Amino acid sequence: MLRKFVRQLRPTQENYIAPIIKIQFLLEARGLDIAILNKILDNKPRSYVLVDVINNKTKVETTIGKTSLSWINNEDKLKFEGGDLTTAFKLGTGYKPVFFSDNGKKLKLTDIIKTPMFGGGRGSGGGAEQTALMECAQCIYAAAVFNGEKLSVGDELDSTSWGTYSSSFDVDKPLDAIANDFTQAWMDSSILIANQMKKNLKGTNYVFHRGSAFVKQIENKFKELNKAEKPKPFSNINKWTPADIWAVKNGETFDFNKWSPADIYAVKSGVTFDFNQYSTLGEFTNELKELYDRQDLVGISLKLASGSVQTEEKNTTGFIRRPVKYGGYIKQTNFFNSKDFYIYLDKQKMQLRTFAVTSGWQGEVKGKTAAAGKIGGGVLEAIMVKNSTLTKFPYTNNELKTLATKPTPSFLDELYQMYVGLVGRSAEQKEKWIKQASAKKIGRVSGADWRFSKFRGMFFVSQLEDNKSIATKVCDNIAAYSLSASDEAAPHVVYK
C-alpha cells in the first residue's frame, strides 16, 4: 500500500511494452540460461557480458520490458562470479528469481531476452525458424513425458538427456539448435501441453513427428492428390491441415502411395495401414478422420500455453468407414405415395429418385457423414456397369421419358415385375396395380415423373438384389466417389 502512494508522488520511469510485443518476445526470442552463458562470444564467455551489464547498470530486454538488473542477494552474486552458475541461478531443476528490475520486480535468468549483445538476433524468416524449433521441442518434451518423465512448470529437461527419448520423436532440427533457442515460456508451454496430451491420447506408445521424412512423404502426397482435383480443393496444405506436429502410434507402417500431410505426428504401435485403395483427397481425408477416431494418427496444432491447457478438436466428424457394405433396401408399404426408393450403404440411407420431372435421376446419401450428398444417375449407372455383367442400363433418359409419359403395356409389365420382385405382392393384384401405375397423377407428382423415377430406382436395386456378390463393391464405389468430391479439411486438435 505504501509503495502505491510513493509511486503516485514520485512515479518511476517505466518502459511500457505493449502486450503484443511481449508475446512477440516470447515467441521469437529465447531467454538466457546457463548453457547460453557458457558459450563463447567475442573470445570470452557470455557470462562476462552479463557481469558488465549488471555492473554498468545497462538496461536489457526482459519479458517485462527494458530494465537494469541488480542482485536480490549477495550469495547468488558471489556464486555467479565464482563460476558456480547452477547454484547461482537454479533451485532444483528450475530457475529461481535472482534479480530485481528497476521497479522492484523479481526476474529469473530466463526472463532476460537473448538479444544481440548476448549472441542473439535473427534475420528475415527468423520467426518461422523459431517456431519450427519450438515445435520440435514440443515433440521432445512429449516423448519424455510419454516415457515416464515427471515434469511440472518451472522444470527443465536437461538437453543432454534428450537423446534418451530419441526412439519416440523424429524432428527436422538439430538438438543443439533447439536447446540453444528454447525460451522459458515455450519450455513451460511444452510441459503443460505434453502433460495434457498424455491425458488425452489413448495409451503412451506414440512417436512424435515434426518435419520428418514421414511428414514430408505425407505433404508430397497431399500436393499430388490436391493438384489432381479440378479445381484444387485447397490453395495450400495449411488450409487442409494446420497441424504442427503429429502423434503416431509407435510401430505403425504407412503406404504413402495414396497419401497426404501435417506438421507434428504421433503414431501408435501394433497397427498397419494400407492406403493403396485410396486415390483421392476426399478418400484420404476420410481415412485420416477414421485414424483420428481410433487415435492411431493425430494431427496437433500448437499455441503457446500458460496456466492451463485447453483443447479444441477440428474437422473430426463426418467420416464413413470403408469398405462400405450393401445393407439392403426399404420395402415400401405405401408404394404409390412417393417416387423414391431407398437402399442402405451400411446403415446410411441413400435415396434414389428423379431430381427434375422426367429428365434425370440421382442418389442422395442422407446424414452427416463424408459420403453425404448427391450422386448423379449417370455415375450410379457407370459404377453398376463397371462392377457387373451389364453393358448399359435399359433405355436412355429420353427413351425412358417417352415411355413414362405414354406407358406401353410392355413397359408397365416390366415395371410391375420389378415391383413384385422387390415388394413381394402377388400376381392377382396386377390389374389393379397397373391401373394405379397408369394414372396421370400419382401421389403428389405427375404419373410420368413417378414412373420414370420408380423405374430407375427399382432397376438399380434389382441389380443389387440379383447380384449380391457385387452389391458391396458397388456400394463401396459409391462411397468412394462421394468422398472424392469432398472438400472437407483434415482432422486435428488444437492445444492452447
Description:
- With 496 residues, the protein is α+β, with helices and mostly antiparallel strands.
- It is 41% helix and 18% strand.
- It folds into 3 domains: 2-118, no CATH class; 126-309, no CATH class; 327-484, no CATH class.
- The chain is built from 18 helices and 23 strands.
- α14 crosses α17 (447-466) and α17 crosses α18 (468-484).
- The model is unreliable at 1-28, 122-126 and 256-263 (pLDDT under 50).
The count of domains is 3
Query: Compute the gyration radius: what is it?
Result: 34 Å
Q: Describe the main β-sheet briefly.
A: 7 strands, mixed
- The residue-averaged pLDDT reads 82
| Beta fraction | 15-25%
Overall morphology: rod-shaped
What oligomerization state is this entry in? single chain
Number of helices: 18
Structural classification: alpha+beta
Distance between the termini: 36 Å
Low-confidence runs: 1-28, 122-126, 256-263
* Counted beta strands: 23
The helix content is 40-55%
Give the key terms.
single chain, 496 residues, alpha+beta, 3 domains, seven-stranded mixed beta sheet, five-stranded antiparallel beta sheet, 41% helix, rod-shaped, disordered N terminus
